[in-house]
Amino acid sequence: MYFDYFGLKEAPFRITPNTEYWYAGGQRGEMLAALLYAIGQGEGIIKVVGEVGSGKTMLYRKLVGQLPDTIDSIYLGNPTLSPDDMLAAILADLGIDTPENGRQARLAQLNAILLQRHEAGRRVVVFVEEAQGIALDNLEFLRLLTNLETATDKLLQIVLFGQPELDAHLAEPSIRQLKDRITLSLNLSPLSETEVADYLRARLNVAGYRGPDLFAPALITRMTRLSGGLSRRINVLADKTLLAAYAGQTHTLTPAHLDAAAGDAEMQPTRPLRPVAGHRWAWLSAGMAAALGLLAFVAWQALTPAAPPATARPAPSPASAPAALMNEQSRQTQSWLTRAAPGTHVIQLAAVKEAPQAAVVIGSLNAAIPQPVRVLHARSRGTPAWIILAGEFPNRSAAQAALDKLPAAPASLDIHQATPFLRTVGKLRNVVLPTG
């Protein structure tokens, strides 16, 4: 009703997840990169937890849309399915409309088709929504499905999406083996006040709005309290606030319009659910970044040559893990720079300001990136940064040929420099910064 009145081409605040309205703030972009990396590794179980309306389904749809073509995704959205029905649903998504009778027969059928896909260079990932509603015995059955494997690879990977109650279920001793299989655990925290403002602005922009900010700072503050920073509640409040202003034939949104929207939606202020934006990176370092640092470290073991044994160092704390790992990789790169010929060329993929961001960028890289991949603490365009380097080429022409084939960098990441370009070992030696 209010589209033309506010200069919109469509509804900006629908609650149905539409990836055209994907918002990469609030660490959503970093989480997406971490999920893409973890799925690319094909190991373990992945868990994503968030409050009702925090954006889990949006994240799932964005994730599936960016998976490589070699990965087949299966969706289980009914938490009440029995193990036999789960098997039937998985087989149906894999093209088997008439599953065998009996669980063991269906398991054998599933194993056979997974082996066929594996031999064809394909992998299968099962996405499970509303996982907090799955009975403990059925969660344990899902874990058993990850035992399907070849001598070298898992045939099936599982990603659990659930509400915070899922963590309580996973704390039960009876399914501790499932918890031990979780290799990446992410939490979708509510948006801060600053992020709510960015979120509203971004959605209005996608919907075609080109005017001044509609939601004043005072409205943002109150909307954050009313919504608890949860995207679905934000959408409901924003939509009804615009409708209330339209009904009053004014383009100026007021607290009265927002209060009317909250009353119509029967919303009351919620308690704060997460730290303010100023502590964002502290939260990241204590939680997801530690996992990303570990993932990046595992990736480095596969991507870089074996290094000589180093003097043992104390294990880093979770908060310092990404920085410690990036520092170690930078030291290895510096050692390589002293040995390599000055005319050796590399591709500078990206430069980021923080070590956790470097871990995220590394986690987003795919198989098309030239090897080896290295990280270096150095100056990039005069600014201290963590530089991600790829490849090792004897001359410029070889490096340029590899550069021309590179895929685009992930647009969702907060990257200081995201356009790849060529550098030489000789010039890199002059911009190295000391590592911690």
Give the structural class. Answer: alpha/beta
Q: What is the percent of helical residues? A: 40-55%
- Tell me the total number of β-strands: 9
Query: CATH first level of the largest domain: which class?
Result: Alpha Beta
Q: Write down the overall mean pLDDT.
A: 82
What is the approximate shape?
Answer: globular
Low-pLDDT ranges:
272-321, 410-416
In whole angstroms, how far apart are the ends?
58 Å
Biggest β-sheet description = 5 strands, parallel
CATH fold-level label of the largest domain: Rossmann fold
Round the Cα radius of gyration to an integer and report it. 24 Å
Topology order in helix (H) and strand (E) letters: HEHEHHEHEHHEHHHHHHHEHEEHEH
Can you summarize this structure?
The chain is α/β, with parallel strands linked by helices and 436 residues long. The chain folds into 3 domains: 90 residues, Helicase, Ruva Protein, domain 3 (Orthogonal Bundle), CATH 1.10.8; 162 residues, Rossmann fold (3-Layer(aba) Sandwich), CATH 3.40.50; 114 residues, Alpha-Beta Plaits.
Written account of the structure:
With 436 residues, the protein is an alpha/beta fold. It is built from 17 helices and 9 strands. The strands form 2 sheets. It has a 5-stranded parallel β-sheet, sandwiched between helices. It has a 4-stranded antiparallel β-sheet with strand order 7-8-6-9. A hairpin with a 2-residue loop joins strand 7 and strand 8 (383-393). The termini are far apart. The model is unreliable at 272-321 and 410-416 (pLDDT under 50).
